[in-house]
Design a protein that fits this description.
The protein is of the alpha/beta class and about 250 residues long. It has 9 helices and 7 strands. A 7-stranded parallel beta sheet has the order 3-2-1-4-5-6-7, sandwiched between helices. Helix 7 (about 205-220) links the parallel strand 6 and strand 7 (about 225). It starts with 9 loop residues before the first strand and ends in a 5-residue tail after the last helix.
């Protein structure tokens, strides 16, 4: 339950080792969040993240969660909610894949879709249903500007984010007025371990900037958050570029 000032006090992170999610968790703990649940595949990195947040003053639980194992999502999320209210769920898992390799391996491409889209739909619905039963809370879904228009350089990843983005928008419309708020977060290129070794794209940003935007967006009950904000206008223009011209762009 939120405190007297309306600030969230509890956070569930689906994708507990995500750099963006952990940076967001630190920012929220620095404000008023006191209970954090990190859901992810068991690893030393997950345990280290939990210890760091405990050191900042939060009570932290670690639960097993695999985005690809959709049969377990509802049970895992329901158990977290059964232990106490959750004010914010941050859906932060995802894989970038290797476009060149995945084009040659349909099975590998399908695994990217399984995690990013199928896993997102499953976990997103499970979280939304739990929040609805609870009667309040927010679901923040990390999408990507890559989903706004598929580019030949990363159309596999972009298509999964396009699906996730459309799903989250529709879910938000469905839950409007119920006390449950859904927010879509659309960052551009973020400098993380996932993108390490790749050349920076225009308007590249950092987990800190994305985290600040997420916290601010939750406070404002925003439906969509672009990071950085200029992408709202960049993508608006790119969406309307004629396809014969678009396919020639080196982006």
């Amino acid at each position: 339950m939120k405190d007297a000032l309306g600030a969230p006090q509890s956070l569930l992170v689906l994708g507990g080792t995500s750099e963006i999610a952990l940076t967001t968790a630190r920012a929220m703990v620095a404000e008023r969040v006191r209970r954090v649940v990190l859901a992810g595949r068991p690893s030393a990195a997950l345990d280290t993240a939990a210890e760091e947040l405990r050191g900042l003053g939060a009570t932290v639980e670690v639960v097993g969660f695999d985005a690809a194992e959709t049969d377990d999502h509802e049970k895992t999320i329901d158990e977290v909610f059964a232990a106490g209210d959750i004010d914010v769920v941050l859906l932060a898992f995802g894989v970038l894949g290797d476009q060149d390799a995945d084009e040659k391996s349909p099975a590998a491409a399908a695994r990217v879709a399984q995690v990013n889209y199928v896993g997102g739909v499953s976990a997103g619905l499970a979280a939304a249903n739990a929040l609805s039963r609870q009667g309040h809370g927010a679901l923040a879904v990390i999408s990507s500007v890559a989903g706004e228009r598929a580019r030949k350089s990363n159309f596999i990843y972009g298509s999964t984010k396009a699906g996730l983005d459309a799903f989250a928008q529709g879910l938000g419309d469905k839950l409007h007025g119920t006390g449950v708020h859904v927010m879509v977060v659309r960052p551009g290129f973020v400098k993380t371990k996932m993108t390490e070794g790749l050349p920076d794209a225009p308007l590249a940003t950092t987990p800190q900037v994305v985290a600040e935007a997420i916290v601010k967006g939750l406070r404002r009950k925003s439906s969509v958050v672009w990071v950085p904000g200029q992408f709202r206008f960049v993508m608006s223009a790119l969406r309307h570029v004629p396809r014969p011209i678009f396919r020639k762009l080196n982006i």
